[in-house]
Protein backbone atom coordinates (compact mmCIF):
# COMPACT_ATOMS: atom_id res chain seq x y z
CA UNK A 1 0.00 0.00 0.00
CA UNK A 2 1.28 3.45 -0.89
CA UNK A 3 2.12 5.52 2.22
CA UNK A 4 1.72 9.23 2.78
CA UNK A 5 5.37 9.97 3.53
CA UNK A 6 5.12 13.63 2.47
CA UNK A 7 2.51 14.36 5.15
CA UNK A 8 0.24 15.99 2.57
CA UNK A 9 -3.26 15.45 1.19
CA UNK A 10 -4.22 16.03 -2.43
CA UNK A 11 -7.52 17.35 -3.76
CA UNK A 12 -8.56 17.18 -7.40
CA UNK A 13 -10.85 20.04 -8.47
CA UNK A 14 -12.94 20.61 -11.60
CA UNK A 15 -13.96 24.05 -12.89
CA UNK A 16 -17.60 24.26 -13.86
CA UNK A 17 -20.21 27.03 -13.89
CA UNK A 18 -17.59 29.61 -12.89
CA UNK A 19 -16.54 27.82 -9.69
CA UNK A 20 -14.06 25.17 -8.58
CA UNK A 21 -15.69 22.00 -7.26
CA UNK A 22 -14.03 19.10 -5.45
CA UNK A 23 -13.89 15.98 -7.62
CA UNK A 24 -11.93 13.65 -5.30
CA UNK A 25 -9.63 13.53 -2.28
CA UNK A 26 -6.41 11.46 -2.11
CA UNK A 27 -3.76 10.59 0.44
CA UNK A 28 -0.93 10.18 -2.09
CA UNK A 29 0.18 12.38 -4.93
CA UNK A 30 0.31 9.69 -7.62
CA UNK A 31 -3.38 8.81 -7.15
CA UNK A 32 -4.40 12.48 -7.45
CA UNK A 33 -2.29 12.98 -10.58
CA UNK A 34 -3.71 9.80 -12.10
CA UNK A 35 -7.26 11.05 -11.51
CA UNK A 36 -6.44 14.50 -12.90
CA UNK A 37 -4.94 13.02 -16.06
CA UNK A 38 -8.15 11.07 -16.67
CA UNK A 39 -10.24 14.24 -16.31
CA UNK A 40 -7.90 16.24 -18.53
CA UNK A 41 -8.13 13.56 -21.21
CA UNK A 42 -11.93 13.54 -21.09
CA UNK A 43 -12.17 17.36 -21.47
CA UNK A 44 -15.65 17.39 -19.94
CA UNK A 45 -14.92 20.35 -17.66
CA UNK A 46 -13.57 23.84 -18.19
CA UNK A 47 -10.62 23.21 -15.91
CA UNK A 48 -8.81 20.61 -13.78
CA UNK A 49 -6.62 21.40 -10.79
CA UNK A 50 -4.62 19.38 -8.24
CA UNK A 51 -3.96 21.09 -4.90
CA UNK A 52 -1.59 19.73 -2.23
CA UNK A 53 -2.25 20.69 1.40
CA UNK A 54 0.35 20.20 4.14
CA UNK A 55 -0.95 18.28 7.16
CA UNK A 56 1.59 20.08 9.34
CA UNK A 57 1.17 23.73 8.33
CA UNK A 58 -2.06 23.82 6.31
CA UNK A 59 -0.28 25.50 3.39
CA UNK A 60 -1.68 24.78 -0.07
CA UNK A 61 0.18 24.38 -3.37
CA UNK A 62 -1.27 24.05 -6.87
CA UNK A 63 0.52 21.15 -8.54
CA UNK A 64 -1.47 20.92 -11.78
CA UNK A 65 -3.89 23.30 -13.46
CA UNK A 66 -5.29 22.89 -16.96
CA UNK A 67 -7.99 25.14 -18.44
CA UNK A 68 -10.05 24.43 -21.57
CA UNK A 69 -12.27 26.43 -23.88
CA UNK A 70 -15.18 24.07 -24.35
CA UNK A 71 -17.38 26.56 -26.15
CA UNK A 72 -21.14 26.73 -25.55
CA UNK A 73 -22.46 23.26 -24.90
CA UNK A 74 -26.19 22.96 -25.48
CA UNK A 75 -28.12 21.62 -22.52
CA UNK A 76 -30.03 18.45 -23.40
CA UNK A 77 -32.65 16.33 -21.73
CA UNK A 78 -31.64 13.03 -20.13
CA UNK A 79 -33.85 10.33 -21.69
CA UNK A 80 -35.97 8.75 -18.95
CA UNK A 81 -38.28 5.75 -19.13
CA UNK A 82 -40.51 6.41 -16.11
CA UNK A 83 -42.72 9.33 -15.08
CA UNK A 84 -45.91 9.19 -13.00
CA UNK A 85 -49.23 10.07 -14.63
CA UNK A 86 -50.60 13.11 -12.78
CA UNK A 87 -54.35 13.64 -12.67
CA UNK A 88 -54.37 17.01 -10.94
CA UNK A 89 -52.11 20.04 -10.64
CA UNK A 90 -51.33 19.01 -7.06
CA UNK A 91 -49.93 15.71 -8.34
CA UNK A 92 -47.26 17.57 -10.33
CA UNK A 93 -45.88 19.05 -7.11
CA UNK A 94 -45.55 15.67 -5.39
CA UNK A 95 -42.15 14.03 -5.06
CA UNK A 96 -42.50 11.33 -7.78
CA UNK A 97 -43.29 13.97 -10.42
CA UNK A 98 -40.52 16.27 -9.20
CA UNK A 99 -38.08 13.36 -9.22
CA UNK A 100 -38.96 12.52 -12.83
CA UNK A 101 -38.59 16.17 -13.87
CA UNK A 102 -35.27 16.38 -12.04
CA UNK A 103 -33.88 13.36 -13.86
CA UNK A 104 -35.15 14.60 -17.21
CA UNK A 105 -33.65 18.09 -16.75
CA UNK A 106 -30.55 16.93 -14.88
CA UNK A 107 -28.10 18.85 -17.09
CA UNK A 108 -30.03 22.10 -16.64
CA UNK A 109 -30.40 21.67 -12.88
CA UNK A 110 -26.70 20.83 -12.48
CA UNK A 111 -25.79 23.92 -14.49
CA UNK A 112 -27.96 26.15 -12.29
CA UNK A 113 -27.23 24.36 -9.02
CA UNK A 114 -30.92 23.93 -8.11
CA UNK A 115 -33.45 21.20 -7.46
CA UNK A 116 -36.60 20.52 -9.47
CA UNK A 117 -38.63 22.01 -6.60
CA UNK A 118 -36.68 25.26 -6.79
CA UNK A 119 -37.19 25.36 -10.56
CA UNK A 120 -40.95 24.85 -10.11
CA UNK A 121 -41.17 28.06 -8.05
CA UNK A 122 -38.68 30.21 -10.00
CA UNK A 123 -40.78 32.22 -12.45
CA UNK A 124 -37.80 33.69 -14.31
CA UNK A 125 -36.11 30.31 -14.78
CA UNK A 126 -39.37 28.73 -15.97
CA UNK A 127 -39.74 31.45 -18.60
CA UNK A 128 -36.18 30.90 -19.80
CA UNK A 129 -36.85 27.17 -20.02
CA UNK A 130 -40.02 27.81 -22.02
CA UNK A 131 -38.08 29.95 -24.50
CA UNK A 132 -35.49 27.24 -25.16
CA UNK A 133 -36.85 25.97 -28.47
CA UNK A 134 -34.84 22.73 -28.27
CA UNK A 135 -34.82 21.73 -24.62
CA UNK A 136 -38.40 22.59 -23.70
CA UNK A 137 -40.26 20.81 -26.55
CA UNK A 138 -38.01 17.75 -26.16
CA UNK A 139 -38.75 17.57 -22.43
CA UNK A 140 -42.50 17.94 -22.89
CA UNK A 141 -42.53 15.38 -25.69
CA UNK A 142 -40.65 12.83 -23.60
CA UNK A 143 -43.05 13.08 -20.66
CA UNK A 144 -46.04 13.10 -23.03
CA UNK A 145 -44.85 9.90 -24.73
CA UNK A 146 -44.50 8.12 -21.37
CA UNK A 147 -47.97 9.26 -20.29
CA UNK A 148 -49.47 8.13 -23.60
CA UNK A 149 -48.04 4.63 -23.21
CA UNK A 150 -49.42 4.36 -19.69
CA UNK A 151 -52.90 5.73 -20.37
CA UNK A 152 -53.50 4.63 -23.95
CA UNK A 153 -54.24 8.24 -24.94
CA UNK A 154 -52.81 10.02 -27.97
CA UNK A 155 -49.38 11.63 -27.41
CA UNK A 156 -50.72 14.93 -28.76
CA UNK A 157 -53.49 14.99 -26.15
CA UNK A 158 -51.00 14.24 -23.37
CA UNK A 159 -48.71 16.99 -24.60
CA UNK A 160 -51.59 19.49 -24.69
CA UNK A 161 -52.36 18.70 -21.05
CA UNK A 162 -48.70 19.11 -20.08
CA UNK A 163 -48.46 22.53 -21.75
CA UNK A 164 -51.62 23.66 -19.94
CA UNK A 165 -50.29 22.44 -16.60
CA UNK A 166 -46.94 24.14 -17.22
CA UNK A 167 -48.74 27.46 -17.58
CA UNK A 168 -50.48 26.88 -14.24
CA UNK A 169 -47.17 26.01 -12.57
CA UNK A 170 -45.58 29.11 -14.05
CA UNK A 171 -48.43 31.31 -12.75
CA UNK A 172 -48.17 29.75 -9.27
CA UNK A 173 -44.43 30.51 -9.31
CA UNK A 174 -45.13 34.13 -10.20
CA UNK A 175 -47.66 34.54 -7.39
CA UNK A 176 -45.39 32.83 -4.84
CA UNK A 177 -42.45 35.01 -5.82
CA UNK A 178 -44.44 38.22 -5.41
CA UNK A 179 -46.02 37.16 -2.11
CA UNK A 180 -43.34 36.85 0.55
CA UNK A 181 -45.80 36.33 3.42
CA UNK A 182 -45.49 32.55 3.31
CA UNK A 183 -41.69 32.81 3.51
CA UNK A 184 -42.14 35.03 6.56
CA UNK A 185 -44.44 32.43 8.10
CA UNK A 186 -41.79 29.76 7.63
CA UNK A 187 -39.09 31.93 9.17
CA UNK A 188 -41.20 33.02 12.16
CA UNK A 189 -43.51 30.06 12.80
CA UNK A 190 -41.43 27.16 11.54
CA UNK A 191 -42.63 24.34 9.31
CA UNK A 192 -45.48 23.33 11.61
CA UNK A 193 -46.76 26.88 11.87
CA UNK A 194 -46.62 27.29 8.11
CA UNK A 195 -48.49 24.01 7.56
CA UNK A 196 -51.15 25.07 10.10
CA UNK A 197 -51.68 28.36 8.23
CA UNK A 198 -51.80 26.73 4.79
CA UNK A 199 -55.14 26.53 2.95
CA UNK A 200 -56.98 23.23 3.14
CA UNK A 201 -57.40 20.89 0.18
CA UNK A 202 -55.28 20.53 -2.95
CA UNK A 203 -53.61 23.92 -2.52
CA UNK A 204 -52.00 23.03 0.81
CA UNK A 205 -48.93 21.25 -0.57
CA UNK A 206 -48.21 23.90 -3.19
CA UNK A 207 -48.49 26.61 -0.52
CA UNK A 208 -46.02 24.92 1.84
CA UNK A 209 -43.66 23.75 -0.91
CA UNK A 210 -43.62 27.26 -2.41
CA UNK A 211 -42.35 28.73 0.85
CA UNK A 212 -39.78 25.96 1.20
CA UNK A 213 -38.58 26.35 -2.41
CA UNK A 214 -38.14 30.12 -2.09
CA UNK A 215 -36.21 29.63 1.17
CA UNK A 216 -33.99 26.90 -0.27
CA UNK A 217 -33.20 29.15 -3.27
CA UNK A 218 -31.44 31.55 -0.90
CA UNK A 219 -28.90 28.91 0.11
CA UNK A 220 -25.69 29.11 -1.88
CA UNK A 221 -24.59 25.50 -2.33
CA UNK A 222 -25.81 21.95 -1.92
CA UNK A 223 -24.44 21.56 1.60
CA UNK A 224 -26.20 24.76 2.68
CA UNK A 225 -29.47 23.43 1.31
CA UNK A 226 -29.15 20.31 3.45
CA UNK A 227 -28.23 22.43 6.48
CA UNK A 228 -31.47 24.38 6.00
CA UNK A 229 -33.46 21.15 5.90
CA UNK A 230 -31.91 20.05 9.19
CA UNK A 231 -32.60 23.45 10.76
CA UNK A 232 -36.26 23.35 9.71
CA UNK A 233 -36.60 19.79 10.99
CA UNK A 234 -35.42 20.61 14.52
CA UNK A 235 -38.84 21.75 15.76
CA UNK A 236 -40.98 19.97 13.17
CA UNK A 237 -42.89 16.73 13.91
CA UNK A 238 -41.79 13.57 12.13
CA UNK A 239 -44.90 13.56 9.95
CA UNK A 240 -44.10 16.96 8.41
CA UNK A 241 -40.41 16.13 8.06
CA UNK A 242 -41.30 13.04 6.06
CA UNK A 243 -44.03 14.82 4.09
CA UNK A 244 -42.03 17.85 2.99
CA UNK A 245 -38.34 17.93 3.98
CA UNK A 246 -37.52 14.33 3.07
CA UNK A 247 -38.38 14.92 -0.60
CA UNK A 248 -36.23 18.05 -0.80
CA UNK A 249 -33.22 16.26 0.69
CA UNK A 250 -33.80 13.40 -1.75
CA UNK A 251 -33.79 15.87 -4.66
CA UNK A 252 -30.50 17.35 -3.47
CA UNK A 253 -28.91 13.92 -3.33
CA UNK A 254 -30.16 13.09 -6.84
CA UNK A 255 -27.49 15.56 -7.99
CA UNK A 256 -24.09 13.99 -8.80
CA UNK A 257 -22.43 17.31 -8.01
CA UNK A 258 -24.15 17.48 -4.64
CA UNK A 259 -22.97 13.98 -3.73
CA UNK A 260 -19.40 14.82 -4.75
CA UNK A 261 -19.46 18.09 -2.80
CA UNK A 262 -20.97 16.44 0.27
CA UNK A 263 -18.46 13.57 0.47
CA UNK A 264 -15.48 15.46 -0.95
CA UNK A 265 -15.06 12.98 -3.82
CA UNK A 266 -14.38 9.26 -3.80
CA UNK A 267 -11.22 7.25 -4.27
CA UNK A 268 -13.02 4.55 -6.30
CA UNK A 269 -16.56 3.27 -7.06
CA UNK A 270 -16.52 0.88 -4.10
CA UNK A 271 -15.86 3.70 -1.65
CA UNK A 272 -18.69 5.71 -3.18
CA UNK A 273 -21.15 2.83 -2.92
CA UNK A 274 -20.20 1.95 0.65
CA UNK A 275 -20.43 5.57 1.82
CA UNK A 276 -23.85 6.11 0.22
CA UNK A 277 -25.21 2.90 1.77
CA UNK A 278 -23.95 3.94 5.18
CA UNK A 279 -25.32 7.46 4.84
CA UNK A 280 -28.73 6.00 4.00
CA UNK A 281 -28.49 4.01 7.26
CA UNK A 282 -27.09 6.87 9.34
CA UNK A 283 -23.72 5.21 10.02
CA UNK A 284 -21.37 6.93 7.56
CA UNK A 285 -17.94 7.80 8.96
CA UNK A 286 -16.87 10.22 6.23
CA UNK A 287 -15.56 13.57 7.42
CA UNK A 288 -15.42 16.63 5.18
CA UNK A 289 -14.81 20.04 6.69
CA UNK A 290 -16.22 21.66 3.55
CA UNK A 291 -19.71 20.16 3.95
CA UNK A 292 -22.34 19.12 6.48
CA UNK A 293 -21.85 15.38 5.84
CA UNK A 294 -21.30 14.46 9.51
CA UNK A 295 -24.33 16.41 10.74
CA UNK A 296 -26.51 15.05 7.96
CA UNK A 297 -25.43 11.48 8.75
CA UNK A 298 -26.55 11.99 12.36
CA UNK A 299 -29.80 13.43 11.06
CA UNK A 300 -30.39 10.34 8.89
CA UNK A 301 -29.85 8.13 11.94
CA UNK A 302 -32.38 10.06 14.04
CA UNK A 303 -35.22 10.90 11.64
CA UNK A 304 -37.22 8.80 9.20
CA UNK A 305 -36.22 9.86 5.66
CA UNK A 306 -37.53 7.08 3.35
CA UNK A 307 -37.34 9.09 0.11
CA UNK A 308 -33.76 10.16 0.76
CA UNK A 309 -32.81 6.62 1.69
CA UNK A 310 -34.47 5.33 -1.48
CA UNK A 311 -32.58 7.83 -3.65
CA UNK A 312 -29.21 6.95 -2.11
CA UNK A 313 -29.80 3.21 -2.41
CA UNK A 314 -31.15 3.70 -5.93
CA UNK A 315 -27.87 5.33 -6.94
CA UNK A 316 -26.04 2.36 -5.43
CA UNK A 317 -28.25 -0.16 -7.25
CA UNK A 318 -27.76 1.56 -10.62
CA UNK A 319 -23.97 1.45 -10.19
CA UNK A 320 -23.95 -2.20 -9.13
CA UNK A 321 -26.16 -3.05 -12.10
CA UNK A 322 -23.59 -1.58 -14.48
CA UNK A 323 -20.54 -3.28 -15.91
CA UNK A 324 -17.82 -0.96 -14.62
CA UNK A 325 -15.50 -2.82 -12.19
CA UNK A 326 -16.06 -2.04 -8.51
CA UNK A 327 -12.31 -1.89 -7.85
CA UNK A 328 -9.07 -1.44 -9.77
CA UNK A 329 -7.50 -4.64 -8.41
CA UNK A 330 -9.06 -7.28 -10.66
CA UNK A 331 -11.78 -9.98 -10.55
CA UNK A 332 -10.91 -11.42 -7.12
CA UNK A 333 -11.07 -7.99 -5.52
CA UNK A 334 -14.40 -7.36 -7.28
CA UNK A 335 -15.79 -10.58 -5.80
CA UNK A 336 -14.73 -9.50 -2.32
CA UNK A 337 -16.16 -6.04 -2.96
CA UNK A 338 -19.53 -7.46 -3.94
CA UNK A 339 -19.61 -9.72 -0.88
CA UNK A 340 -18.87 -6.69 1.29
CA UNK A 341 -21.63 -4.63 -0.35
CA UNK A 342 -24.14 -7.43 0.17
CA UNK A 343 -23.27 -7.44 3.87
CA UNK A 344 -23.68 -3.66 3.97
CA UNK A 345 -27.25 -3.76 2.59
CA UNK A 346 -28.42 -6.83 4.53
CA UNK A 347 -31.18 -6.09 7.03
CA UNK A 348 -33.41 -8.22 9.26
CA UNK A 349 -35.94 -9.11 6.55
CA UNK A 350 -34.03 -8.98 3.28
CA UNK A 351 -31.77 -6.35 1.80
CA UNK A 352 -32.15 -2.59 1.74
CA UNK A 353 -33.04 -1.11 -1.62
CA UNK A 354 -35.88 -3.45 -2.57
CA UNK A 355 -36.31 -5.06 -6.01
CA UNK A 356 -33.87 -2.72 -7.76
CA UNK A 357 -31.07 -3.64 -5.36
CA UNK A 358 -31.92 -7.35 -5.43
CA UNK A 359 -31.89 -7.44 -9.23
CA UNK A 360 -28.70 -5.39 -9.44
CA UNK A 361 -26.86 -7.69 -7.01
CA UNK A 362 -27.88 -10.85 -8.87
CA UNK A 363 -26.93 -9.28 -12.20
CA UNK A 364 -23.51 -8.34 -10.86
CA UNK A 365 -23.12 -11.78 -9.20
CA UNK A 366 -23.59 -13.49 -12.57
CA UNK A 367 -20.41 -11.75 -13.73
CA UNK A 368 -18.38 -11.45 -10.53
CA UNK A 369 -18.67 -15.07 -9.37
CA UNK A 370 -18.25 -16.71 -12.76
CA UNK A 371 -15.08 -18.54 -13.77
CA UNK A 372 -15.49 -18.19 -17.54
CA UNK A 373 -19.04 -17.89 -18.88
CA UNK A 374 -21.58 -15.87 -16.90
CA UNK A 375 -23.53 -17.78 -14.26
CA UNK A 376 -27.19 -18.56 -14.79
CA UNK A 377 -29.63 -16.46 -12.77
CA UNK A 378 -30.36 -19.39 -10.46
CA UNK A 379 -26.65 -20.01 -9.86
CA UNK A 380 -26.11 -16.33 -9.09
CA UNK A 381 -29.04 -16.35 -6.66
CA UNK A 382 -27.51 -19.35 -4.88
CA UNK A 383 -24.23 -17.48 -4.46
CA UNK A 384 -26.05 -14.49 -2.96
CA UNK A 385 -28.21 -16.63 -0.65
CA UNK A 386 -25.06 -18.27 0.76
CA UNK A 387 -23.96 -14.82 1.96
CA UNK A 388 -27.21 -14.02 3.80
CA UNK A 389 -27.31 -14.94 7.51
CA UNK A 390 -30.67 -16.69 8.03
CA UNK A 391 -33.83 -17.74 6.18
CA UNK A 392 -35.94 -14.64 6.87
CA UNK A 393 -33.29 -12.53 5.15
CA UNK A 394 -33.10 -14.98 2.25
CA UNK A 395 -36.87 -15.09 1.85
CA UNK A 396 -37.09 -11.28 1.91
CA UNK A 397 -34.35 -11.07 -0.70
CA UNK A 398 -36.16 -13.57 -2.96
CA UNK A 399 -39.46 -11.73 -2.58
CA UNK A 400 -37.71 -8.54 -3.70
CA UNK A 401 -35.96 -10.45 -6.45
CA UNK A 402 -39.25 -11.60 -7.97
CA UNK A 403 -40.24 -7.94 -8.37
CA UNK A 404 -37.11 -6.94 -10.27
CA UNK A 405 -36.85 -7.00 -14.09
CA UNK A 406 -34.33 -9.87 -14.00
CA UNK A 407 -36.58 -11.71 -11.54
CA UNK A 408 -39.63 -11.29 -13.75
CA UNK A 409 -37.66 -12.57 -16.71
CA UNK A 410 -36.58 -15.64 -14.71
CA UNK A 411 -39.72 -15.99 -12.61
CA UNK A 412 -39.86 -19.79 -12.47
CA UNK A 413 -36.21 -20.10 -11.42
CA UNK A 414 -36.76 -17.62 -8.57
CA UNK A 415 -39.98 -19.33 -7.48
CA UNK A 416 -38.26 -22.72 -7.43
CA UNK A 417 -35.51 -21.42 -5.14
CA UNK A 418 -38.14 -19.74 -2.97
CA UNK A 419 -40.17 -22.94 -2.72
CA UNK A 420 -37.13 -24.96 -1.65
CA UNK A 421 -36.40 -22.40 1.05
CA UNK A 422 -39.98 -22.37 2.38
CA UNK A 423 -39.93 -26.18 2.46
CA UNK A 424 -37.23 -25.93 5.11
CA UNK A 425 -39.41 -23.89 7.46
CA UNK A 426 -40.45 -26.20 10.29
CA UNK A 427 -40.79 -23.65 13.08
CA UNK A 428 -40.32 -19.96 13.75
CA UNK A 429 -36.75 -20.67 14.88
CA UNK A 430 -36.03 -22.11 11.42
CA UNK A 431 -36.92 -18.70 9.95
CA UNK A 432 -35.25 -16.31 12.40
CA UNK A 433 -32.54 -16.81 15.05
CA UNK A 434 -33.96 -18.38 18.22
CA UNK A 435 -32.55 -15.55 20.37
CA UNK A 436 -34.07 -12.75 18.29
CA UNK A 437 -36.16 -10.42 20.54
CA UNK A 438 -39.90 -10.84 20.16
CA UNK A 439 -40.51 -7.28 18.98
CA UNK A 440 -37.90 -7.71 16.27
CA UNK A 441 -39.50 -11.00 15.20
CA UNK A 442 -42.81 -9.13 14.88
CA UNK A 443 -41.09 -6.49 12.75
CA UNK A 444 -39.51 -9.13 10.51
CA UNK A 445 -42.82 -10.96 9.98
CA UNK A 446 -44.58 -7.69 9.14
CA UNK A 447 -41.85 -6.79 6.65
CA UNK A 448 -42.05 -10.20 4.97
CA UNK A 449 -45.84 -9.98 4.69
CA UNK A 450 -45.52 -6.52 3.15
CA UNK A 451 -43.17 -7.95 0.54
CA UNK A 452 -45.59 -10.86 -0.02
CA UNK A 453 -48.29 -8.34 -0.95
CA UNK A 454 -46.35 -7.37 -4.08
CA UNK A 455 -48.26 -7.75 -7.33
CA UNK A 456 -45.14 -9.32 -8.85
CA UNK A 457 -45.71 -12.54 -6.88
CA UNK A 458 -48.36 -14.84 -8.43
CA UNK A 459 -51.51 -14.92 -6.30
CA UNK A 460 -51.46 -18.63 -5.51
CA UNK A 461 -47.83 -18.45 -4.36
CA UNK A 462 -48.65 -15.38 -2.28
CA UNK A 463 -51.47 -17.18 -0.51
CA UNK A 464 -49.36 -20.27 0.10
CA UNK A 465 -46.37 -18.40 1.51
CA UNK A 466 -48.55 -16.13 3.66
CA UNK A 467 -50.31 -19.16 5.11
CA UNK A 468 -46.96 -20.79 5.87
CA UNK A 469 -45.73 -17.74 7.81
CA UNK A 470 -49.01 -17.51 9.71
CA UNK A 471 -48.73 -21.17 10.71
CA UNK A 472 -45.16 -20.71 11.94
CA UNK A 473 -46.23 -17.85 14.22
CA UNK A 474 -49.34 -19.71 15.38
CA UNK A 475 -47.37 -22.87 16.10
CA UNK A 476 -44.78 -20.87 18.04
CA UNK A 477 -47.51 -19.16 20.10
CA UNK A 478 -49.20 -22.50 20.80
CA UNK A 479 -45.89 -24.01 21.90
CA UNK A 480 -45.23 -21.12 24.29
CA UNK A 481 -48.76 -21.32 25.72
CA UNK A 482 -48.56 -25.08 26.31
CA UNK A 483 -45.06 -24.78 27.74
CA UNK A 484 -46.27 -22.22 30.23
CA UNK A 485 -48.97 -24.68 31.32
CA UNK A 486 -46.36 -27.41 31.71
CA UNK A 487 -48.04 -29.52 28.99
CA UNK A 488 -46.66 -30.78 25.69
CA UNK A 489 -47.60 -28.73 22.62
CA UNK A 490 -50.62 -29.86 20.69
CA UNK A 491 -50.13 -31.67 17.44
CA UNK A 492 -50.38 -29.41 14.43
CA UNK A 493 -52.02 -30.98 11.37
CA UNK A 494 -49.81 -28.79 9.24
CA UNK A 495 -46.75 -30.39 10.82
CA UNK A 496 -47.38 -33.83 9.37
CA UNK A 497 -44.72 -35.36 7.13
CA UNK A 498 -41.90 -33.81 9.11
CA UNK A 499 -43.34 -30.27 9.14
CA UNK A 500 -42.13 -29.75 5.60
CA UNK A 501 -44.55 -27.71 3.52
CA UNK A 502 -45.65 -29.67 0.48
CA UNK A 503 -45.78 -27.65 -2.76
CA UNK A 504 -48.15 -29.39 -5.14
CA UNK A 505 -49.01 -26.38 -7.29
CA UNK A 506 -48.61 -26.94 -10.99
CA UNK A 507 -46.04 -24.16 -11.35
CA UNK A 508 -43.64 -25.65 -8.80
CA UNK A 509 -40.95 -28.05 -9.91
CA UNK A 510 -39.68 -28.86 -6.41
CA UNK A 511 -39.90 -32.59 -5.55
CA UNK A 512 -38.45 -34.73 -2.78
CA UNK A 513 -35.37 -36.54 -3.98
CA UNK A 514 -34.69 -40.20 -3.12
CA UNK A 515 -31.52 -41.20 -1.32
CA UNK A 516 -28.92 -42.29 -3.85
CA UNK A 517 -25.56 -44.08 -3.85
CA UNK A 518 -22.52 -42.75 -5.69
CA UNK A 519 -19.21 -44.31 -6.65
CA UNK A 520 -16.56 -41.58 -6.67
CA UNK A 521 -13.12 -41.56 -8.28
CA UNK A 522 -9.85 -40.62 -6.60
CA UNK A 523 -9.30 -36.87 -6.28
CA UNK A 524 -12.90 -35.81 -6.95
CA UNK A 525 -13.92 -32.66 -5.06
CA UNK A 526 -17.28 -33.16 -3.31
CA UNK A 527 -17.62 -29.50 -2.30
CA UNK A 528 -15.46 -26.45 -1.63
CA UNK A 529 -15.26 -23.97 1.21
CA UNK A 530 -17.88 -21.21 0.77
CA UNK A 531 -20.14 -23.28 -1.51
CA UNK A 532 -23.90 -23.29 -1.04
CA UNK A 533 -24.95 -26.55 0.63
CA UNK A 534 -27.49 -28.90 -0.94
CA UNK A 535 -26.13 -32.36 -0.04
CA UNK A 536 -24.40 -34.25 2.77
CA UNK A 537 -22.62 -37.61 2.44
CA UNK A 538 -22.38 -40.88 4.38
CA UNK A 539 -19.11 -42.74 3.65
CA UNK A 540 -20.05 -46.35 2.81
CA UNK A 541 -16.56 -47.34 1.69
CA UNK A 542 -13.27 -45.53 1.11
CA UNK A 543 -11.87 -42.29 2.54
CA UNK A 544 -12.65 -38.59 2.25
CA UNK A 545 -10.25 -35.82 3.20
CA UNK A 546 -11.68 -32.60 4.74
CA UNK A 547 -9.41 -29.57 4.37
CA UNK A 548 -9.25 -25.81 4.37
CA UNK A 549 -6.99 -23.37 2.55
CA UNK A 550 -4.69 -21.09 4.50
CA UNK A 551 -3.02 -18.76 2.05
CA UNK A 552 -1.52 -20.96 -0.65
CA UNK A 553 -1.41 -24.05 1.59
CA UNK A 554 -4.00 -26.70 2.39
CA UNK A 555 -4.64 -27.67 6.01
CA UNK A 556 -6.13 -31.18 6.40
CA UNK A 557 -8.71 -31.10 9.19
CA UNK A 558 -9.79 -34.75 9.11
CA UNK A 559 -9.74 -37.95 7.06
CA UNK A 560 -13.12 -39.68 7.24
CA UNK A 561 -13.87 -43.34 6.59
CA UNK A 562 -16.66 -45.90 6.61
CA UNK A 563 -19.66 -44.80 8.68
CA UNK A 564 -18.64 -41.13 8.89
CA UNK A 565 -20.92 -38.30 7.72
CA UNK A 566 -19.66 -35.04 6.21
CA UNK A 567 -21.30 -31.81 5.01
CA UNK A 568 -24.19 -32.14 7.44
CA UNK A 569 -23.69 -28.83 9.32
CA UNK A 570 -24.45 -26.67 6.29
CA UNK A 571 -27.64 -28.64 5.67
CA UNK A 572 -28.80 -28.11 9.25
CA UNK A 573 -28.21 -24.37 9.47
CA UNK A 574 -28.13 -23.54 5.74
CA UNK A 575 -24.82 -21.66 5.99
CA UNK A 576 -21.98 -21.83 3.42
CA UNK A 577 -19.53 -24.74 3.60
CA UNK A 578 -16.81 -24.18 6.20
CA UNK A 579 -14.30 -26.52 4.52
CA UNK A 580 -13.63 -28.47 1.34
CA UNK A 581 -13.87 -32.24 0.85
CA UNK A 582 -11.90 -34.47 -1.57
CA UNK A 583 -12.06 -38.23 -2.14
CA UNK A 584 -8.83 -40.17 -1.49
CA UNK A 585 -8.82 -43.32 -3.59
CA UNK A 586 -12.15 -44.68 -4.81
CA UNK A 587 -15.09 -44.30 -2.47
CA UNK A 588 -18.76 -45.22 -2.21
CA UNK A 589 -21.05 -42.59 -0.73
CA UNK A 590 -24.70 -42.29 0.22
CA UNK A 591 -26.05 -38.85 -0.76
CA UNK A 592 -28.28 -37.11 1.80
CA UNK A 593 -30.29 -34.26 0.23
CA UNK A 594 -31.43 -31.06 1.86
CA UNK A 595 -35.08 -32.05 1.55
CA UNK A 596 -34.53 -35.47 3.15
CA UNK A 597 -32.60 -34.04 6.09
CA UNK A 598 -35.18 -31.26 6.57
CA UNK A 599 -37.94 -33.87 6.75
CA UNK A 600 -35.99 -36.00 9.24
CA UNK A 601 -35.14 -33.02 11.46
CA UNK A 602 -38.73 -31.85 11.20
CA UNK A 603 -39.95 -35.15 12.56
CA UNK A 604 -37.35 -34.97 15.31
CA UNK A 605 -38.56 -31.46 16.15
CA UNK A 606 -42.12 -32.73 16.52
CA UNK A 607 -41.15 -35.66 18.76
CA UNK A 608 -38.33 -34.11 20.77
CA UNK A 609 -38.05 -30.32 20.49
CA UNK A 610 -35.30 -30.16 23.12
CA UNK A 611 -33.08 -32.56 21.19
CA UNK A 612 -33.78 -30.69 17.95
CA UNK A 613 -32.76 -27.40 19.60
CA UNK A 614 -29.63 -29.02 21.05
CA UNK A 615 -28.58 -30.04 17.54
CA UNK A 616 -28.91 -26.40 16.37
CA UNK A 617 -26.89 -25.15 19.36
CA UNK A 618 -24.26 -27.84 18.79
CA UNK A 619 -23.86 -26.82 15.13
CA UNK A 620 -23.54 -23.15 16.11
CA UNK A 621 -20.77 -24.01 18.57
CA UNK A 622 -18.95 -26.18 16.05
CA UNK A 623 -19.05 -23.34 13.58
CA UNK A 624 -17.72 -20.94 16.19
CA UNK A 625 -14.82 -23.27 16.89
CA UNK A 626 -14.21 -23.72 13.17
CA UNK A 627 -13.76 -19.99 12.67
CA UNK A 628 -10.74 -20.00 14.98
CA UNK A 629 -8.98 -22.16 12.40
CA UNK A 630 -8.84 -19.24 9.95
Give an overview of the whole structure.
With 630 residues, the chain is α+β, with helices and mostly antiparallel strands. It folds into 5 domains: 8-67, no CATH class; 74-178, no CATH class; 221-264 and 274-303, no CATH class; 321-495, no CATH class; 516-627, Jelly Rolls (Sandwich). The chain is built from 27 helices and 12 strands. The strands form 3 sheets. Strands 7, 8, 9, 10, 11 and 12 form a 6-stranded antiparallel sheet that branches. The chain has a 4-stranded antiparallel sheet with strand order 2-1-3-4. A two-stranded antiparallel sheet has the order 5-6. A hairpin with a 2-residue loop joins strand 1 and strand 2 (19-26). Helix 26 crosses helix 27 (609-627). The longest helix is centred in the last third of the chain and has 27 residues, at 459-485. It is globular and about 90 Å long. Mean pLDDT is 84; it is low at 488-513 and 617-630.
The fraction of residues assigned to DSSP E strands is 5-15%
Low-confidence stretches: 488-513, 617-630
- Could you give a short account of the major beta sheet? 6 strands, antiparallel
Mean pLDDT comes to 84
SS elements, strand count: 12
Quick gist of this model?
By secondary structure, the chain is of the alpha+beta class.
